[in-house]
Amino acid sequence: MGLTNYKKTQGRPTRQIALCVVIASLSWLLISAAALFVRRQVGIGWLSICVAVIGLAGAISVAILNRPRWADFLISVQAEIDKVTWPSKAEVHKHTLVVLILLVSMSVIVFAFDIVWQWVFKTIGFLQI
User: Fold this and answer.
1) Is the separation of the CB atoms in 118 and 50 below 8 Å?
2) In terms of DSSP H, where are the helices of 2-86?
3) Phi and psi (nearest 5°) for 85?
4) What is the mean pLDDT of the chain?
5) Does 106 or 30 have the greater pLDDT score?
6) Which of 83, 104, 119 is the last residue of a domain?
7) Rounded distance, CA 63 to CA 65, Å?
8) What's the number of domains the chain is made of?
9) pLDDT digit string (tens) for 41-100?
10) Are residues 127 and 91 in the same domain?
11) Which candidate, 68, 34, 26, places its Cα nearest to that of 50?
12) Less crowded by CB within 10 Å, the N or C end of the chain?
């Protein structure tokens, strides 16, 4: 396969996000593993190890994400994301307001039920508060 990108113009945003996530995950894993073998000494040596590990994670990530199976999956994910109809800003504000109003009203209702049942149980002597 070499250094060529498989279908490099298709699914670019999804592939870039996946690349960043895989690099971050591999870097964290490899640096954590390296920390077990090298005492955490802050200095040029530790910094160079971290940079080398991140570079290695990047190379591994590019190799993995350019395999036809992974690339085709990410291309299809991008195609599905492009089909999504995103709401406008006004719709988001309206729906958020509805959720907040329902949240507050349900909280008031639950609080009222709590007060009523507490009064009932205190009246019949079930609770000794």
Assistant:
1) no
2) 12-37, 44-65, 68-83
3) -95, 110
4) 80
5) 106
6) 83
7) 6
8) 2
9) 555 666 677 778 777 877 877 777 777 787 788 788 888 888 989 899 999 999 999 999
10) yes
11) 34
12) C
